[in-house]
C-alpha cells in the first residue's frame, strides 16, 4: 500500500488556472505554528461586551430567583401533595418544584460562569512547554547514590538475621486480622441440605394460610405453599422461606412423563421447590398448557411434567421435588424433607 | 475606616492571608506552577469532568441520605403514608428508605439525584475511558493513570451494586440472591464465603449493615484516593491535545487555568449538578414503593441490575447450564464460567496499553491524542470490545427485548450466544476497513485538495469539480501523525555468519506488529514528493 | 424464528392439554359451585342461549366445532364456563385472527349483550366458572396492601411488579394489566386463559381476588401517582439505564460541547 497510483482523470483539472499557481513552499507539510488570534465581537465592540456582561448577570440573578423559589416550594408544598403535570403524569409537587428550582439555580451559575469565560475572558490560545517526566541522568545518579548510602547505613542487606525475622513478623501479623473474620458467620455444616419440611407437615396455602386439600388444587392452577408452623412474623421467616418455598400444580397423571414424579405426587398434584437451582430466584412463571416453568431472572426453563428437568437456560439440574400425600383428615402433607439440597448448586452438593 | 490611611504601607487583606498561608503551606510555589496551567479545549476532554462532578454530587447527596437511612434488617410493620404498603412487614432499611421518599421533604429528590448521578457517573466513566482508548491517550507516560481510571470504573460498579442493594427491596434483594448463588458456585470455599458474608444462611440479618459500611466508607474511601491520584497525574502529565498548527508533542496549547478554566470547569460542575437535579425532578428512579420489600419467595419479571452490571447479567443469562458432578462434589460451570469471563473481559481492556507498548516497542512519551483512524488495529480492537460488551447488555435485558420487539426470548438468547463470539470479529474487520478508508480519504484531500462543490466546464466540454488546495495548517494537521515502520525479524544469520536465535515471544511480537503496521494495515501518508509532483501540475493540462 | 419456535411443540398437544385442563377446571367448579343461583328466569335464559348459538355458529364454530367440541384449530369449550367466554371475547382475544405463539388482545367486535348470549350458550354446553357479578369484582373496601403482597407472590413473576407485563418462553408473554377492567382481571384469575395458570376460589378466595384488583388499580391505574416523575414504563433498571445514557449523559455531553467550543469570531469588515 506504499504509493497510491492516482489515475489522471481524478486530478483536479484547471486548479492552477482557476486559483493561480498553488504556492508550494519548500515544505508545505511543515508546522505553520499557532494561527494568529482573531478577535471576538466582544473584543472589539464594547457594546457587545456589555451585552455579554448583562447576560451573565441575568443568569446569576435567575439563579438567585430559583433559590428563592426552592425555599418557597419547600415551605409551600406539603410533602404528600400530588399534581398532574403533562407529560410526566401524577407527580409529587414538592419533588418537581424542588428539583427544577435547585436544578435551575445550579445551572444558571454554571451557564453564567461559562458564558463569562467564553465571551469576556481572554481567548488567546497559549502554549505551555512540556518537560520529560523522567528525571535527568544527574538526578537519577544522585538518587541512586543516596539510596545506596542509606541502604548501607541501615545494614539491611548485611544483617540477614534482622531482615529475615522482620519479613517473618510482617508476614504473620495480618493473620490476626484474618482470624478475626472467623466470627463473620457460622460454618456451613448441613445448613444448606435441610429445610423446614418434615414428615407429616401440612402444606399451608401462602394466600389463605389454611392447609391445602387435594380437591382445592385444580388442574391448570398454580398455588404456593409453606410448611405448617412457619409464620411471616417469625424472626427466621426470611431464612426458612428462602429454602422451603413450594410451588404446587396439578397435572393429569397420564401427562406426567417421569415415573418418580408421579410416584411422589398425589393424584397428579406435584410439589416442587420454588427456588431456582441456578442462582436461587423464586421461579414460578408457570405456563399451564406446556407445563413449563420459567425463571424470570435468567430464563432457566423446567418441564414440570417431566421431573422438572432443565429444558433451556443456565440452570444445571432439575428442581427438587417434595414427596407429598394426604393425611387421614384429608389434608395434603409432606412425606419428609427434600431428598436433595434446594436452590443453587455448591461444591459439597454432590 | 481606619485602615484606609494604612493602605500604602500594608498589603491588601487577601495578600496578607496568602502570605500567611505561603509561610506554612508554600502556596506561592504551587501557584507558580499551576495557576496559569494550560488546558486544551475539546469537548471530549471534559468527559472526565462529568465523572468527577457526578462523583462529588454522589458524595454530597450520599451524606444527606445517611442521616435518615437505617442500615438494619430488623422487621417492622410499615405505618407510613404510602397506602399500598401499610401494614406490610419490611426491614428497617426498606422502611427508612420509604420514610426518605415520602415523609422527608426533598428526601425523594436527593435520593433520585444520588441514584441518577450514580448511573451517569458510571456511564461517564465508560465513555471517558473509551475516549482515552481511541485517541491513544493511555500511552507512555499515562499507563498508570489509565489503570487508576480503570480501577475507578471497576470499584464504581461494586459501589453502585452495594448501594443499589441497601434499600432491601424486592428487586435489589433478587440481585443479592443472585450474588449469593454465584458465591456458592465457587469451588471448595463457596459455601464458607457465603456463610461468612451473610452471617449465616441467606438472607440472614446482616448483609445490609455490611454492605452499608462498604458502600459509604470502604469503597468510596478508596475511590476518593484514586480520584485524587488520578487528578494529580493529569496535572503532572499535562493534558494531551490533538494535532494541529502549533500543537506538538512538546507543548500543550489552550487556555490558562486562571481565569478561563477556573470559570469553565467550575461552571461545568454547576451545569452537571443542575442537569442531574432537573433529571431527578422529572424522572423517577428505583421506585421501591412499587417494588415492595424483599422476600426470598417473591420475584418480579424483568429483574435486572443497574446498567453497569447488565453485562454480567447477560453473561449469566446466556450461559448454558453446565454442571459437573464428580466424586461427591459439584463444579457449577454454568455460574463459574460467566463469573470468570466477567473480570477477564474487563481486564482485556485494562491491560491493553501494556500490550500495545510491547508490540510497538516504543519507549518515548506521547502527548498527542491520535485520531482513531490513524491507529486502525487499535480502533478495531476497541470497537470489537465494545461490541462484545453491548451484545451482553442485550443479553442482560433479553426479556424486555422480547416483549418490546415481539421476539422469542429463546431466539434472543441464541443470538447473544452466537454473536458474543461472532460480533466482535465482524466489528473488528469492518472497523479496520473503515479506518483505512478514512486514511485514504485524508491522503486524497492532502494531495488533491478539498472538493469545493464548484463545477467547472472545460473548453472541450468536460465538466470537472474544482478542488481547493488545503491551507498549510490543514496540510500539517493531516500529515503530522507518526507512522510506525513494521517491525521485522533480524536476518537469520548475523554478519559473522552465525545463526541468530530468535525467541518465540519475539516472533509473536513481530507478527503482531506487522498486523498493526504492515502493508495492508495502514495507508502510508502522502510524501512531499507526491504532493509536489501533483501540485506542480506536472504532466497535466 | 418466532414461527419456528412456536411450532416446536405440536399444536395438537397444547390443544389436548387445554381440553383436559379446562374440562377438569369446569368439573371441579361444577362440584363445588353453589347450585341453584340461576333459576331466575328460565325463558329469558333459553332465549339467550338460542341467540348465542346463532352467534356461535357464525363466529366460533369454524375453530371450536359446531357443538363446541373443539377441532384441530381450537380447543373444546365444554365446561369452560361463561367467565371464560366473557374474558376471551370481551377482551377481543376471541375470535382469534391468526395462529401465533399467543392470541393477542384486540378490538372487541361483539357488544356486551352479544357476549352475554355467547357466554350463555357456551355455559349451557357444560358447567364452568360463571361470569362474576359487579359486586363480586368491585374492589371498593378491599385491602390494597394485602393485595400487593398477594400480587408479588402470585402475579408479579409474570406480569411485573406493577403489572406492566413480561416475557414467557418462545415468544409468549404475560400481557400488561394496564387498563384491564376489574371484571376481566377477575375472570383471568378464575379461568386461567391461554398459558396463564388459574387461581380458583379454592386456593384464592374471592376476597383476595378483590384485594389484588384493588392493588392493580392502585399501582397501574389512570390515577396512579409516580411521585418521582416519569415512571419510564415501570420497567426498572433497563429503562432507567437507557434514560441515563440518552438524556443524562446526552445532555451533559451537549453542555460540554458548548463549554469547550470556541466563541464565534468577529466577522472581518
Describe the protein:
Chain A: The chain crosses the membrane at residues 55-77, 97-117, 161-181. Chain A is α+β, with helices and mostly antiparallel strands and 350 residues long. Chain A has nine helices and 14 strands. In chain A, a hairpin with a 5-residue loop joins strand 10 (301-303) and strand 11 (309-312). Mean pLDDT of chain A is 90; it is low at 1-24. Chain B has 541 residues and is mainly α. Chain B has helices at residues 13-25, 27-34, 47-66, 92-102, 107-134, 143-165, 170-184, 190-198, 207-237, 257-282, 288-291, 310-318, 333-350, 352-360, 376-396, 398-404, 409-448, 472-479, 504-517, 528-535; strands at 38-39, 75-77, 89-91, 241-242, 251-256, 324-326, 329-331, 368-369, 450-457, 463-468. In chain B, helix 3 packs antiparallel against helix 5. The radius of gyration of chain B is 29 Å and the shape is globular. The model of chain B has no long low-confidence stretch (mean pLDDT 92). Helices cover 52% and strands 1% of the residues of chain C. A two-stranded antiparallel ribbon of chain C has the order 1-2. In chain C, a hairpin with a 5-residue loop joins strand 1 and strand 2 (173-174). The chains are: A alpha+beta (350), B mainly alpha (541), C mainly alpha (269). Chains in contact: A-B, A-C, B-C. Chains A and B meet through helix 1, helix 4, strand 3 and helix 8 of A and helix 5, helix 7, helix 8, strand 5 and helix 10 of B. Strand 3 of chain A pairs antiparallel with strand 5 of chain B, so a sheet runs across the interface.
Describe the SSE topology:
The complex is a heterotrimer of chains A (350), B (541) and C (269).
Chain A: H1 15-19, H2 41-44, H3 46-76, E1 82-85, E2 89-92, H4 93-119, E3 126-129, H5 137-154, H6 160-172, H7 174-180, E4 203-205, E5 222-227, H8 237-244, E6 246-250, H9 259-264, E7 269-273, E8 285-287, E9 292-294, E10 301-303, E11 309-312, E12 321-322, E13 324-326, E14 332-334
Antiparallel strand pairs in A: 1-2, 4-5, 5-6, 6-7, 7-12, 8-9, 9-10, 10-11, 13-14
Chain B: H1 13-25, H2 27-34, E1 38-39, H3 47-66, E2 75-77, E3 89-91, H4 92-102, H5 107-134, H6 143-165, H7 170-184, H8 190-198, H9 207-237, E4 241-242, E5 251-256, H10 257-282, H11 288-291, H12 310-318, E6 324-326, E7 329-331, H13 333-350, H14 352-360, E8 368-369, H15 376-396, H16 398-404, H17 409-448, E9 450-457, E10 463-468, H18 472-479, H19 504-517, H20 528-535
Parallel strand pairs in B: 4-8
Antiparallel strand pairs in B: 1-5, 2-3, 6-7, 9-10
Helix pairs in contact in B: 3-5, 3-10, 4-5, 5-6, 5-10, 6-9, 12-13, 12-15, 15-17
Chain C: H1 2-6, H2 11-32, H3 42-59, H4 61-64, H5 81-90, H6 112-125, H7 134-137, H8 144-154, H9 156-159, E1 166-167, E2 173-174, H10 182-191, H11 206-220, H12 237-260
Antiparallel strand pairs in C: 1-2
Helix pairs in contact in C: 3-6, 5-6, 5-10, 8-11, 10-11
InterPro entries (chain A): QcrA_N (IPR045603), Rieske_2Fe-2S (IPR017941), Rieske_2Fe-2S_sf (IPR036922), Rieske_Fe-S_prot (IPR014349)
Transmembrane segments (chain A): 55-77, 97-117, 161-181
Protein name (chain A): Cytochrome bc1 complex Rieske iron-sulfur subunit
Amino acid at each position: 500500500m506504499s504509493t497510491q497510483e492516482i489515475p489522471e482523470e481524478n486530478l483536479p483539472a484547471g486548479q492552477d488556472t482557476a486559483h493561480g499557481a498553488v504556492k508550494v513552499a519548500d515544505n508545505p507539510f511543515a508546522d505553520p505554528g499557532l494561527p494568529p488570534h482573531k478577535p471576538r465581537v466582544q473584543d472589539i465592540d464594547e457594546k457587545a461586551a456589555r451585552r455579554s456582561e448583562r447576560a451573565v448577570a441575568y443568569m446569576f440573578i435567575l439563579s438567585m430567583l430559583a433559590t428563592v423559589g426552592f425555599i418557597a416550594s419547600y415551605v409551600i408544598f406539603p410533602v404528600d401533595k400530588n399534581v398532574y403535570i403533562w407529560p410526566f403524569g401524577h407527580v409529587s409537587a414538592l419533588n418537581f418544584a424542588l428539583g427544577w428550582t435547585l436544578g435551575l439555580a445550579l445551572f444558571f451559575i454554571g451557564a453564567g460562569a461559562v458564558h463569562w469565560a467564553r465571551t469576556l475572558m481572554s481567548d488567546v490560545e497559549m502554549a505551555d512547554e512540556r518537560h520529560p517526566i523522567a528525571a535527568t541522568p544527574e538526578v537519577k545518579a544522585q538518587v541512586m547514590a543516596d539510596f545506596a548510602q542509606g541502604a548501607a547505613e541501615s545494614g539491611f542487606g548485611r544483617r540477614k538475621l534482622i531482615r529475615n525475622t522482620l519479613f517473618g513478623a510482617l508476614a504473620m501479623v495480618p493473620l490476626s486480622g484474618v482470624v478475626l473474620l472467623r466470627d463473620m458467620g457460622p460454618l456451613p455444616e448441613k445448613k444448606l441440605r435441610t429445610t423446614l419440611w418434615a414428615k407429616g407437615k401440612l402444606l399451608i396455602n401462602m394466600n389463605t394460610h389454611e392447609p391445602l386439600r387435594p380437591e382445592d388444587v385444580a388442574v391448570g392452577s398454580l398455588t404456593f405453599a409453606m410448611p405448617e408452623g412457619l409464620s411471616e412474623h417469625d424472626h427466621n421467616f426470611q431464612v426458612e422461606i428462602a429454602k422451603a418455598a413450594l410451588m404446587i400444580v396439578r397435572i393429569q397423571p397420564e401427562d406426567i412423563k417421569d415415573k418418580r414424579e408421579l410416584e411422589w405426587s398425589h393424584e397428579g398434584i406435584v410439589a416442587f421447590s420454588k427456588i431456582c437451582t441456578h442462582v436461587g430466584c423464586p421461579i414460578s412463571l408457570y405456563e399451564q398448557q406446556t407445563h413449563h416453568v420459567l425463571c424470570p431472572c435468567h430464563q432457566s426453563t423446567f418441564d414440570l411434567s417431566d421431573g422438572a428437568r432443565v429444558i433451556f437456560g443456565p440452570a444445571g439440574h432439575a428442581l427438587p421435588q417434595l414427596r407429598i400425600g394426604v393425611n387421614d383428615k384429608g389434608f395434603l402433607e409432606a412425606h419428609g424433607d427434600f431428598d436433595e439440597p434446594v436452590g443453587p448448586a455448591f461444591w459439597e452438593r454432590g | 475606616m481606619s485602615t484606609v490611611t494604612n493602605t500604602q504601607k500594608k498589603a491588601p487583606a487577601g495578600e496578607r492571608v496568602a502570605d500567611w498561608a505561603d509561610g506554612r503551606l508554600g502556596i506561592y510555589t504551587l501557584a507558580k506552577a499551576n495557576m496559569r496551567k494550560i488546558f486544551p479545549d475539546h469537548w471530549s476532554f471534559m468527559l472526565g469532568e462529568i465523572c468527577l462532578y457526578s462523583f462529588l454530587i454522589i458524595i454530597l447527596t450520599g451524606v444527606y441520605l445517611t442521616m435518615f437511612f437505617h442500615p438494619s434488617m430488623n422487621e417492622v410493620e410499615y405505618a407510613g403514608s404510602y397506602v399500598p404498603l401499610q401494614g406490610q412487614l419490611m426491614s428497617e432499611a426498606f422502611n427508612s428508605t420509604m420514610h426518605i421518599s415520602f415523609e422527608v421533604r426533598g428526601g425523594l429528590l436527593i435520593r433520585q439525584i444520588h441514584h441518577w448521578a450514580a448511573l451517569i457517573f458510571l456511564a461517564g466513566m465508560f465513555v471517558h475511558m473509551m475516549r482515552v482508548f481511541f485517541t491513544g491517550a493511555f500511552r507512555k507516560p499515562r499507563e498508570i493513570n489509565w489503570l487508576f481510571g480503570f480501577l475507578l470504573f471497576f470499584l464504581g460498579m461494586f459501589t453502585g451494586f452495594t448501594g443499589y442493594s441497601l434499600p432491601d427491596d424486592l428487586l435489589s434483594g433478587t440481585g443479592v440472591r443472585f450474588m449469593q448463588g454465584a458465591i456458592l458456585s465457587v469451588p471448595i470455599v463457596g459455601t464458607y464465603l457465603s456463610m461468612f458474608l451473610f452471617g449465616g444462611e441467606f438472607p440472614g440479618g446482616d448483609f445490609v449493615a455490611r454492605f452499608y459500611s462498604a458502600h459509604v466508607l470502604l469503597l468510596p474511601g478508596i475511590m476518593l484516593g484514586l480520584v485524587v491520584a488520578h487528578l494529580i497525574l493529569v496535572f503532572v502529565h499535562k493534558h494531551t491535545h490533538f494535532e494541529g498548527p502549533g500543537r506538538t508533542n512538546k507543548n500543550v496549547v489552550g487556555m490558562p487555568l486562571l481565569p478561563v478554566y477556573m470559570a469553565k470547569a467550575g461552571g461545568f460542575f454547576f451545569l452537571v449538578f443542575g442537569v442531574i437535579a432537573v433529571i431527578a425532578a422529572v424522572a423517577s428512579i428505583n421506585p421501591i414503593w412499587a417494588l415492595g420489600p424483599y422476600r426470598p419467595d417473591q420475584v418480579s419479571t424483568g429483574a435486572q441490575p443497574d446498567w453497569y452490571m447488565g453485562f454480567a447479567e447477560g453473561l449469566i443469562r446466556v450461559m448454558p447450564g453446565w454442571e459437573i458432578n464428580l466424586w461427591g462434589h459439584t463444579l457449577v460451570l454454568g455460574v463459574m464460567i460467566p463469573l470468570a469471563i466477567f473480570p477477564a473481559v474487563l481486564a482485556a481492556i485494562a491491560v491493553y496499553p501494556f500490550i500495545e507498548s510491547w508490540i510497538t516497542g516504543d519507549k518515548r512519551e506521547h502527548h498527542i491524542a491520535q485520531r482513531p483512524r490513524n491507529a486502525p488495529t487499535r480502533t478495531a480492537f476497541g470497537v470489537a470490545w465494545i461490541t462484545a460488551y453491548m451484545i451482553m447488555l442485550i443479553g442482560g435485558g433479553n426479556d424486555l427485548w422480547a416483549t418490546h420487539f415481539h421476539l422469542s426470548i429463546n431466539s434472543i438468547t441464541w443470538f447473544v450466544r452466537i454473536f458474543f463470539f461472532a460480533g466482535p470479529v465482524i466489528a473488528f474487520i469492518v472497523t479496520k476497513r473503515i479506518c483505512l478508508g478514512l486514511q485514504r480519504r485524508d491522503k486524497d484531500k492532502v494531495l488533491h485538495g478539498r472538493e469545493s462543490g464548484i463545477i467547472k466546464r472545460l473548453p472541450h466540454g468536460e465538466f470537472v469539480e474544482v478542488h481547493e488546495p488545503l491551507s498549510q495548517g490543514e496540510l500539517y494537521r493531516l500529515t503530522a501523525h507518526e507512522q510506525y515502520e513494521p517491525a521485522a525479524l533480524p536476518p537469520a544469520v548475523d554478519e559473522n555468519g552465525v545463526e541468530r536465535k530468535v525467541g518465540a515471544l519475539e516472533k509473536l511480537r513481530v507478527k503482531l506488529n506487522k498486523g498493526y503496521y504492515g502493508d495492508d494495515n495502514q495507508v502510508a501518508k502522502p510524501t512531499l514528493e507526491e504532493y509536489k509532483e501533483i501540485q506542480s501540475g506536472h504532466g497535466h493540462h | 424464528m418466532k414461527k419456528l419456535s412456536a411450532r416446536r411443540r405440536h399444536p395438537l398437544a397444547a390443544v389436548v392439554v387445554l381440553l383436559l385442563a379446562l374440562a377438569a377446571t369446569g368439573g371441579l367448579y361444577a362440584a363445588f359451585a353453589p347450585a341453584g343461583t340461576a333459576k331466575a328466569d328460565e325463558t329469558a335464559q333459553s332465549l339467550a342461549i338460542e341467540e348465542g348459538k346463532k352467534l356461535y355458529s357464525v363466529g366460533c364454530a369454524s375453530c371450536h366445532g359446531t357443538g363446541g367440541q373443539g377441532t384441530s384449530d381450537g380447543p373444546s369449550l365444554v365446561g369452560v364456563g361463561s367467565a371464560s367466554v366473557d374474558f376471551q371475547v370481551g377482551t377481543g382475544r376471541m375470535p382469534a385472527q391468526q395462529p401465533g405463539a399467543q392470541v393477542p388482545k384486540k378490538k372487541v367486535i361483539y357488544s356486551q349483550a352479544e357476549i352475554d348470549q355467547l357466554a350463555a350458550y357456551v355455559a349451557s354446553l357444560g358447567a364452568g366458572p360463571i361470569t362474576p357479578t359487579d359486586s363480586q369484582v368491585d374492589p371498593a373496601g378491599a385491602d390494597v396492601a394485602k393485595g400487593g403482597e398477594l400480587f408479588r407472590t402470585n402475579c408479579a413473576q409474570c406480569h411485573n411488579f406493577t403489572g406492566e407485563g413480561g416475557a414467557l418462553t418462545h415468544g409468549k408473554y404475560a400481557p400488561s394489566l394496564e387498563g384491564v377492567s376489574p371484571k376481566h382481571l377477575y375472570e383471568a384469575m378464575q379461568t386461567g386463559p391461554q398459558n396463564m395458570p388459574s387461581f380458583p376460589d379454592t386456593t384464592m378466595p374471592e376476597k383476595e381476588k378483590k384485594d389484588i384488583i384493588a392493588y392493580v388499580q392502585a399501582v397501574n391505574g389512570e390515577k396512579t401517582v409516580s411521585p418521582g416523575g416519569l415512571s419510564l414504563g415501570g420497567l426498572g433498571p433497563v429503562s432507567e439505564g437507557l434514560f441515563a445514557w440518552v438524556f443524562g449523559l446526552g445532555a451533559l455531553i451537549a453542555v460540554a460541547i458548548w463549554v469547550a467550543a470556541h466563541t464565534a469570531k468577529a466577522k472581518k469588515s
